[in-house]
Amino acid sequence: MKFDRARLAEMLQDSITDLSVFVIDLTISDSAVRPKVTVILDGEDGLGIDLCVKVSRRLAHRIDEAYGEEASYTLEVTSPGADQPLSDPRQYARHVGRTLKLNLADGTEKTGIMEAVEAEGIQLAEEVKVKTKKSMLPAVLVPFADIKEARVVISFK
């Protein structure tokens, strides 16, 4: 069985239209016997297991209607893990006040506290080390277009 990614993406959008979630990624494995459809969703306030179950059931129903109930596939609907980079500007809002590590398009890295999210980027108070002392620079706007990868720094303080 071969799934059409564009068709699945459309079915997925139909499955989430009335929910406060958005798609981060949709992948389909190459297995011809039993392909695995993996959907990664997120929401501005995070994503709970109940929403994953709801979307999974809706999407499975649509797939069964389109490809027939005898279609053999595995469906996984999940949220991004804590170690996954932020890939959509809507993901940043719930991380205000947390430390981010940014890899920028120009090859540089910045680590600092995200103070705010704006339409064009984030306000980041960069942490710099001078000898053995750490200090914070005043927050500056880092445009989303300049961010190649952003990860939340997980600390267990």
TrEMBL record:
It is found in: Cytoplasm. Residues 86-156 form the Ribosome maturation factor RimP C-terminal domain. InterPro entries: Ribosome_maturation_RimP, RimP_C, RimP_N, RimP_N_sf. Gene3D superfamilies: RimP-like superfamily, N-terminal (3.30.300.70). Residues 12-83 form the Ribosome maturation factor RimP N-terminal domain. Pfam families: DUF150_C, RimP_N. GO terms for cellular component: cytosol. One of its GO terms (biological process) is translation. Keywords: Cytoplasm, Ribosome biogenesis. Belongs to the RimP family. PANTHER family: RIBOSOME MATURATION FACTOR RIMP. Required for maturation of 30S ribosomal subunits. This is Ribosome maturation factor RimP. It comes from Hymenobacter daecheongensis DSM 21074. The lineage of its organism: Bacteria, Pseudomonadati, Bacteroidota, Cytophagia, Cytophagales.
